[in-house]
Structure formats: C-alpha cells, structure tokens
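name: query_chain
kind: protein
chains: 1
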Amino acid sequence: MGNFILKTDVPNKVLNIELEGSFSQEDGLRSISAYQDTIAPLNTKEYDLNIDCKKLNVTAPEIVPLLEGCLQMFKKDEFKKIVLTLENNAILKMQLSRLGRSVGLNNLEIISTVTT
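structure:
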C-alpha cells in the first residue's frame, strides 16, 4: 500500500510531498485528489515542489501511466522547480528520469541519496 503526506511551507513557497510504499491505482487516485485540494489556494508558479521518494518502491508496470499522468500534472501546474529525492535506487531513478523526459518536464531534478 502506498502512503503520502502533503505539507505546504507557505513562508518558503514550497510544497513538500512524502511518498512511501507501493502505490496501487486507488492509492494513486487518492494522492492526486489530495494534491489537487492542497494546491487549489496556491499560485504554483511561485512554488517549488519537493517530493521525497526515499521510501517509495519501484512502480509496477500497470501504475506507470498513472505516475506519468502525475508528472504531466506537475508540468501543467508550472512549479518553479520540481525536485525528487530518492535513496540510492538506480532503477527508480531511471524510471522517473525517463518519465520526466517523456512528458517534457524540463525543471525536474532528481537527487539520489546514499543511506548509511
């Protein structure tokens, strides 16, 4: 099961999202709905989007279209910068990089951290 936490840092103009686990179609749709409710009062063009994916599992093939739709949604919302933070997970990094390129998300930065 996938979990998500949305936190808006208004003074610093950052929307922080934490993702963990394996997302089902239902989990993905719940997270999208919560995301849309969270950004409704924001001028996203003034905000950075930081997504913590350190506890996120590699996306199952049937969920990839939903993830791609999320990246398209982030592009449409025109955040100043989008940063995805991963653990040292080369497969997830490749998957997200490829999806980001495929939707034309030019302001996407993927940071890979190493756990000790």
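note: Strands lie at 3-9, 14-21, 48-56, 81-86, 108-112.
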